[in-house]
Each structure stands twice: as C-alpha cells, then as structure tokens.
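Following up on my earlier thread - several people asked me to post the actual chain instead of describing it. Fair enough. Here it is, all 291 residues.
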Amino acid sequence: MLTAYMLGQALLSGLLMGIAYGLMGAGFNLIYGVLRLVNLAHGEFLMLAAFATYWLHVLLGLDPLSALPITVPLFFLLGLGLYRLLIPPLQRAADPETTSFLAFFGLSLALATGAFLAWGATPRGIPNPYPLTALSLGGFFFPFGRLLSAAVSLVVALLFLYLLYYTYAGKALRALIDNNQAAQLLGIHVQRLSAYAFALGLGLIAVVGTLTPLMFPSIVPSMGFPFTIVSVVVVVLGGLGNPLGALLGGIVFGVVLNLAGLVLSMSLAPAISFAVLILMIMWRPEGLLPR
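Reply from S.P.:
Thanks for posting it. Predicted structure:
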C-alpha cells in the first residue's frame, strides 16, 4: 500500500534525477535548435564520458568531481572537431535532416561497437569515493552520490541559462534557434556559432556522463541508447528548440518515472518513457514551453 512517505521519497528522488535528465536534454535540444540535427549518438557520448571518468579513476585516482575539469573541455574540443568533420557535408546534402539522422544513427552504432570491442561487456563501476554514502533530509534518505550529481547538474544548468539569456553569445544562439536566416542577415557568424553550439551540447552531456558513476552502479557500452531515448522524451516534453523547456521536461520526466516505479517495476522504464512520449505528443505536441 502506498504511503505519503513513499510518495514523498519518490517525488524528491525523481526531482534529483530529473535535474540531470534536464541537463542532458538541454544539450540535445541546443544542437537540434541551432543545427536542426537529431543527434542519435547523444547517449553514446554520455557513455564515453562515463568510461573516461572510470579510467581517470583507475589510472589517476580521480573522483568524478575531479574528473570534470578534464572531461568537459575534452568533449567540447571533440565537439568542435566532429562539427568540422561531419556537419558541413551533411548540410550540403539534398535532404540534410534525413541524412544527418542516418549519419548520427550510424555514429551511435560505431561508438557503441567500438566501446564494446575496447572494454568488453563486463559492467564497470567506481566505488563510492566520498566519506558519506547517504544523507537524511527531513526524514527522507538520499544516496550521497545522487544528491551531489543533482547539485552539480543544477549549478551547470544555471550557468547554461545565464549564458543563454544574459550574454551576447547566448542571445545570438537564441536568435539562431528562432530564425537562422534572419540571424545571418543581422551579421551573426552562423557557422562559427553553430560549431560552438554543437561543442557546448557535447560539453553538457559530458557533465552528466562524468557524474553517471555516482548515480548508477555500472557502466556498460550498451548504456548509451536508453539515454538517447530519455533525451528525446525530455525534449518533446519541454518543447523542441527550447533549452529551458528541456530542463523543465527533465524534471517532469524524472518525477513521473519515479512515481511510476512505485506501482510498476523499474525494468519497465523504457515502456514508461515511450508512454510519456506518446501521451505528450497527443496532448501537447509543442511541449510545455514552445519554441
């Protein structure tokens, strides 16, 4: 029988997970909004960041927080390189959106297969590197790693929103999301800013990937695709082309997922994801916060 305590615990746990989901969706939404590209390899980049964190722990003894200053700039530079390599040819295609969809699907398969060949299918993880394992707040118990991940994700999300709404570069990014051609006529360097948007999207997913060992017990090469599905659901919930909506959508999805877990098995999480996606498309296809 459900109790008020169980509902409260699920609600707060969902809120903590939702902040990380929202940051993950914000990166996905930024790339889509600026470039009109569906990055189906989004979850695979999270998986690579999680493995990078694992190896930094094994080789250098770094904990996930100490790994952030290494993984985030690394994936930002990776994003710049991938943009130069992949995006201009895709944009010159007869049907850029379909071509990019297929290209990033192929990239996701290549990254997952490469990770499997390099590290095998054996789950890996990082033992709790911090003195605390759990915290009690108001009678509710939270794993310390998940609480820390939510706090870092929230700080990064606030910095991202500050960038978007209070800096010239952020206003230019929002102009590109709103109307690419008009922004170009106003003198915005579209190609350069698009490259930074793609790199920033990968930097945001690298933050979540680096914190993943604190939230989940194991890291495997096949973990990327479910996170891509979550990103799509979060973006549809929040609104396509609206990074702020993605943050809100992530919180809503995290809460719904945890509340559903009270009455359903958490192994049904993918089914819950698809159900939320279908219901949202039927009820409000433009999302909670339209573009």
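The CA atoms of residues 13 and 258 lie 7 Å apart. That should answer part of your original question.
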